[in-house]
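Exercise 3.2. Students should predict the tertiary structure of the chain below and write it as structure tokens, then compare their answer with the key that follows.

Predict this chain's 3D structure.
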Amino acid sequence: MPLNPIPLSYVILAAIGERGASTPELVDMASRGTMFWSSAPSQIYAEPRRLLELGWITSEKRPGKTRHRTVHRLTPKGREALRDWLRAPAGFPKLQHEASFRLFAGDLINDDEILASLQKLRADIEEMSRLVATNIDRAPTVPNRTRYLLLQQDLGRRLLKAHTDWLDNVERELAPGRTAPTP
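Answer key:
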């Protein structure tokens, strides 16, 4: 059975970039960018094997703080695959927006229950806002990507603001005692 890349393959290739990265570093990068891509750590740990089989990366053992670590690097074939993917048109992102579907099915529970179900979203926005601020602070430590990282994090900041504004509006509209607008 032929081995095919999946979207995560390209995300991992991009994270490896020209500097290389170990698998724990890839997991760390993913944990700081959950707004833009979310995968379980187990998926991230497994993906380098696929990339090795495709011939898109190499791996070598290097000394670490407590034990050797495996550092992954792009091969010319991997670099070209990544560049081809980067050049392809990017469409609107695929969303799995649970909060919006809680409103879609809002006629099945009462407004107080909907509002309660959205409270985690507010906490997540606060946590992601801290991550965006951290990523902005860290951007200069990656000189070859600083400009791009800052632009990416600007998108994150704007998405979080849009979600905050939307959540504020939902909370106003569904507030106890407020009547539903007439169509």
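Discussion points: The first helix runs from residue 7 to 16. The CA atoms of residues 57 and 74 lie 4 Å apart.
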